[in-house]
Structure formats: structure tokens, C-alpha cells
Amino acid sequence: MIKKQLIMEKALELFAQQGIEATPVQQITDYCGISKGAFYLSFKSKDELIIALIDHFMIQIIADIDYMVKNTENDAELLYTFYYTTFHSFHKHSDFAKIFIKEQTQSFNEELIVKIHYYDRLMEGIILSLIERLYGEKVENTKYDLIYCIKGLMNSYSALFLFNNAPLNRELLCQSLVEKTNLLASHTSVPFITREDFQMLKHPIKEEITKEQIIEMIEQISKEIEEPLEKESLILLKQHLVEPTLSPAIVKGLLENIRKHPHCKWVSYLLFRYYEIE
Amino acid sequence: MIKKQLIMEKALELFAQQGIEATPVQQITDYCGISKGAFYLSFKSKDELIIALIDHFMIQIIADIDYMVKNTENDAELLYTFYYTTFHSFHKHSDFAKIFIKEQTQSFNEELIVKIHYYDRLMEGIILSLIERLYGEKVENTKYDLIYCIKGLMNSYSALFLFNNAPLNRELLCQSLVEKTNLLASHTSVPFITREDFQMLKHPIKEEITKEQIIEMIEQISKEIEEPLEKESLILLKQHLVEPTLSPAIVKGLLENIRKHPHCKWVSYLLFRYYEIE
DNA sequence: TTGACAAATGACTTATTAGTCATTATTATA
DNA sequence: TATAATAATGACTAATAAGTCATTTGTCAA
Q1: How far is the C-alpha of B255 from the C-alpha of B234, rounded, in Å?
Q2: Closest nucleotide C1' to the C-alpha of B47
Q3: Class of the domain covering B1-43
Q4: What fold does the segment set B46-187 form as a domain?
Q5: What kind of fold does domain A45-187 have according to CATH?
Q6: Which of residues 247-276 of A touch B (CB under 8 A)?
Q7: Spans in chain A with pLDDT lower than 70
């Protein structure tokens, strides 16, 4: 166990300096003063080490933030506390934060992507609950959009101090972000991300979605929908998926029927893709 | 020349799908239907291909944006035009945009970092001139900060449609960003990034800065400064660097004297680092 | 048709790295 | 102290990939 921790610490340092890909296991073990074989007694593979690192730190960071948010009674301080805790955590684990931000878009390892996605969703959940608590009904239509604004601003400023070694006045940064968040929350009238978009993004598109998955999705949506036009269009589209009988023009028309309904956005997008590729 | 273009096109596709690191030259040449040797007749190395790609597309993207900004007479449309052109360009060159966003933080190739940094600065310059034109004097103290807000928001939303294949209503996105930008520009009172920070970030810190470089920097700043307290403190600190004579307490005090002066922020940070490491 | 030149090839060299496993060292136990 | 069990080693294998160069193929003018 102690060996495992040693490897994780040293690897983290090297990863942050050189990147994960560019750091061979041999270098990690040299840096630890152990043999290569010893590494594989602690971790089945290099990938397992990476996953372990992400879990270890993300759990800490998320737990810190979650704890602070849940234990801040005073709403006036809440936003400031949130930002402060987050940046404090990023700073404390800056080596990890660097890796995480880098691999967020870079990685092609399936398991890693899933992991990163998972923690990203957790963060979004925290931000959303924070927004709801602070602004309540007022942001009903803009809250999902606001999440992406907050994430964008946090990313921009994090990158600044993580990758430029710029001196950081954390208090000022948090004050500044609190002001910006309040501004955006109270005055935004044209949100880009709607509740439906947000739902969509929870199920990120696989490279290929099968016909069966689309059918299943249609069946579920049909139940939730009242409007007869959209409902009938959906049912026809489903039948056409099971056994193609309709002409392209009719299909296109049906797609047009459902495209504007908020619950059908995702499905209509998938169907457009499906028929375009076919 | 045509061969070069073929390679660039095909490589771009593969890079966007799999990442640069994960795409061997052999795969590129197979995909082009040429031999490995032929690749090396067009490009001296894989790195040269990457640089060529970045130059090719960044020049196009920046030129597009710059042209639109310069040729939009009506200020009311300017911001919208800027966002629209940018996202249009990103969409048009989405394979490249993906690579660029990924490698922005990931890359460890020195030449690549310099390239990316260069184009990033160009973008910042365009954004700055746009802000100055639109808001003028009103944002004198917040304009540098505003750049990072805009970049953050743009990044956040770009990642969304680049990596999630989300369907994009570009008009709505741009409207939304115009509103947000106007909000932030007209109401921000607590900027985080000041003019001085912005200057600093232009010269990103090397891993190690030598004593000589700090001395040189102090000499230059001394000339620009009027205030006697800061000026004298700087001179004493310089002498102490040349030949250490002062006690740690005195040095600390002198650093405290200069730390708040806007022109000394950078130097005081470097000195803090310097004495901490020593 | 031929010879000279250029273009293209792909087997080969060199280098790197993840992961293995027979061997050795260490520790615990009787 | 002897023996068994456990931990650690690092030379080795297999795989991958960048870049080279002797050889082949194609082109075109004489």
C-alpha cells in the first residue's frame, strides 16, 4: 500500500511535467528508486495507475467542494466559498489539475474518457444545485446555460495560473468570479443550453448509435408526449425504422414535425444523422 | 505540392479521430495510398507536417476573423459578426479545431508550444481591439480581464459542439454570447486580470529565471518609476542581488514595499520565488 | 529505342517502451 | 539456524514507430 502511494506521488510529478504519454514506466520506477517489476506488483498496468490517480484526486477535490457547499449556511458567502474551495483544491493538487485539464480533451483511452466524463458530470451537478439554491425560480430557463458559463470561466482562469505559473491572488479571483456569476445569473435572457440540451449531453453520442437504440428512445419519448401531431409522427418514424415503407419526402416531413418539440430534439438529431449516413 | 496537400488533408482526418501521437506516419501514407518514403519527400519529419497544419489553418481562421472584424462598419453587428465568423470557421475546420484545442494544453514539443502560443496571442489581440472599439474608455480597467472571459466562454461552447457532436444553432449561440459579453463589459467592476498581468502573460515564465535576468528587469523598471519609496527599494534589492549584504528581514520588508506597485508585480513575484528557492 | 533524370518504393535500421518471468534477496517462522 | 514464503529485480520479449536508402519504376527528350 505504501509502495502504491509512493508510485502515485512520483508518477504524478512526472506526468505533470512531461505528460502521461511521454513518461515511461521505467522513468517512474527509477524516480521512485524501485525496479520495474516492483511497479507491476502494485499496478497491473500503466493505465491502472492513471485511473487510480484520477480517482484518488477527483474524489478528494469533489468531496472538498461538496462538503463546503453543503456546510455553508449563508447564501451570501456560498458562491465565494465554492470558487475559493475549488481553486484552493486545484492549487493544492496542481500537478493533478494540470493532468486532468490536459487529458480532458486529449485522451483516447476509453476507460479514461468514461472516468473523466463521470467526474465532469459530478461537478456539473454540484454547480447546478448551487445555482438553484442561490437564484431559484429566477434562473429556471437559464440555469443549464449558466453551468457552461461557470465552467468556461473557471477553466480559463485555472489554465492561467496552472500553466503560466502566474502569481495568484485567490481572493480577488473569487470576488471577480462571484460578481460575474451574479451578473450572468440575473441578466441573461438568451440562454444557449436548454434543459433538453443538458439532458442530451448526459448521454454523449457513441460513434455509432444503432437503429435499435433509436427505436427504444422513440418508444420512451412517445409515452411522455401529449401533442397528437408529434406523437403520430414519432410512431410512424418508429415503424419506418422497423420496416422501411415511407418515401424519403414523407420521412423528411415527419422529422420536420418533431424537430421543434423540446423532447424530440435529441431523437430528431439522431434520425437526421441516421438517414444522412444510410 | 499537390502531394503535400493530400497528405495534410488525410493526416488531419486521422489526427482528429485518433490524436496526433496515436497516428503513425505509416497509417497516414496507407490512407493516402502512397509509400512511407514519399511522405518524407514532402515533409522532413512528422513534426514538420504538424507545424504545417497548424500554420495553414490558423492563418485561414485568423485571417477570416480579422477580415470580418475590420470590414464590419456597424458597431451593433460587430460582436455578433465576430462570434459568428469564429464559430463558422471552427465548424468549417472542425477537424483542425479539435486538434488545436487538444494540443493547446497537451503538447510538449517546444516548437509547437511556441506556435500555439503565437496564434493564441494573435487571437487575444483581435479580441482586445474589438473590445476597445466597442466599449472604449468604459472598460479601461476591465478590458484585459474581459479577454479571458470571452476566451473562456468561447472555449466552453466550442468544446461542446466539437467533442459532443451536439447539433448547433449557431445564430442562437452567437446571440447568447453577444448578450453575455455586453453584460460583462458594462457591469464588471472587479477585474481579475489587470493590464500588468496581461503584459506579464505575454512573456511566459521560463522554468528558471537567472539572477541576471531579474537584475536587468529591475534596472528597466527603475527608470519607469517615480515613487521614491518603490524606487529606492528596487535599487537596494538590485544591489543585494549583485552582492548579498542585507538581512532576510530587510529583504522581506523591501519586497513588501514594492509588491503593490503595478509595475513591480512581476519582479516582486520573481524575487519571492528566487529567495524561496535559494 | 535508349539513356538520363526524377519520383516513388518498402524493407531495413534504430530506438523506444509496455509488460513478463526466471532468478535473487529478504523476511518471518519454526 | 534452516526453511518456507514473500518481495524485488532487471534482463528479456514483443510490439510499435520514426526515419533512411538501395533499388525500382516512370517520364521524356534525343
Answers
A1: 8
A2: D18
A3: mainly alpha
A4: Tetracycline Repressor; domain 2 (1.10.357)
A5: Tetracycline Repressor; domain 2 (1.10.357)
A6: 265, 269
A7: 1, 103-108, 204-209, 224, 260-263, 265, 269, 273, 276-278
